[in-house]
Amino acid sequence: MQEQEVKILIVDDDEISRVGCERILEMSDYHVDLAENGVEGLEKIKSEGYDLVVTDLMMPKMGGMEFLQEIRKIDEKIIPIVITGYATIENAVDAVKMGAYDYLAKPFTPDEFRAKIERALEKRLLLLETEKLREERDKNILEHSIEKTRTFTIINCMSEGVIATNKSGHILLINPAAVKMFRIKHVNVIGKKVTGLTSNPDLENKISDALTRVTSKEVLERFEMTTPEGRVLQSNITPVINEKKECIGTVAVLIDITEDKKIEKVKTDFLNLVSHELKAPLGAIEGYLNLILDGITADQPEKEKNYIQKSKDRAHELLELVNDLLDLTRAEKKISSKLISPVDLSGVIKETFDFYKNEAKAKSIQFNIECPEKLPMIRGNAEELSRLFANLVSNAIKYTPEKGQVSLKAEKNNNQVYVYVKDTGIGMSREDAAKVFDEFYRAKNAVSQKISGTGLGLAIAKKIAEEHNGYIELESEPDKGSVFTVVLPVVDKSPAENNELLKRGIDGHKTNI
Ligand code: ADP
Hints:
The chain is α/β, with parallel strands linked by helices. It has helices at residues 15-26, 38-48, 64-74, 89-97, 110-157, 176-182, 186-189, 202-212, 258-293, 301-332, 345-362, 382-398, 430-433, 444-448, 457-467, 495-507; strands spanning 7-11, 31-35, 52-56, 79-84, 102-105, 161-166, 171-174, 221-226, 232-241, 247-256, 339-343, 366-370, 378-380, 405-413, 416-423, 471-477, 481-489, 511-512.
């Protein structure tokens, strides 16, 4: 109000009185307007807006009481002052009831008038300030509630579990992710101790620690805990500190790391296996070389040659192992990150047959192929599929004694291609058959018959089949032989489309998906 010009309206049918009031107020910096009656006054109030209205009570067209009522309807914050020549207590009371702020009886002195005006303006100022404060408060409440809703929405959408406790360790808040992690009913735990969440006492203990040993706002406790269902949770507990540096509660953030833990274990197991497998041939090579270097074979050239040959064999084994390991890592890579294209499986199978023909012949093994001229297309990686069949065929030849039989057969059945690698070799027991697809696993008969191998070929083959949405089945009987069946889904296309795909595949227009 101080910055803005004060606007006053004087409404009186008596011109002398009207102008007299205007003159008194002229000395101050007010903006003063005049109206002859209530109707004219209301028009001005609607169009101009005023801080104060000074009005006579007895006026033609519209009585003062009615005028007062109408002013309140337009703006409750306008301060009306009533002036009348017929000053009675009743009139004054009625006018105040109708909303007048004060009352001035004629005749009055300019000082009396100015004093009334000033008091009324103070009241107006107070009203406006109260209004402003109320608006600000309402705005703050609204902002606060928006902020609160936003925070709750974020906490509720988090994939991490959040549990907030008060100073005595009772739960104040628990988000849906935490509810899911502990498989509990939300409503039951608010206000209760965290012991109700899990039979594992770690969480409760660490929260108590955080509440008592608090020295900083830093994450105080980070630990792993296991739920009764076997999920591993990484928990970070932070104390909540107020301005007086007192701990008023804790916030626990829980991350489900069960899958990470599994992967970590698989990796460690694999590394242990690999180091174990590498250690044996390296140790043997070192041993033979030490014997030679120590001069033990100095005058025994035959023995020395034998040790060198043995070292060479073990080195060759190591090389095979490293190659298989490389193949395994290649097979681990998702097919989606490899170059994939429609693959003509009959071509891959025939190439494999041609490649191993001589090896089979060298062992006098009867090696047959039965494969249609055209097989439906397989979506995948030709190089990987070729590695899969090479592993199975080389095994069949390796584990089949001389003069045995190995056959390679392919056929289509119900949107799938079946490839059978059959041999009349050493076979294996049922227990071994269940494990031979595991990395480094070798069947007992293969080891006892000293047939060399890494135990990785079938693990690689299995991974390649799975990457092509297929699988491998095994039927085997000791001393009778084995049948490995590879089942792969065909590309769901018409023969014409398949031909087109084939043409594009051969032309080298391959797709990366
Ligand atoms: P390896 O390098 O030892 O041959 P694989 O992973 O290819 O490794 O095979 C795992 C094990 O499965 C072999 O050590 C062997 O015991 C058994 N095996 C695989 N193929 C045959 C087969 N055709 N006949 C008999 N045993 C087999």
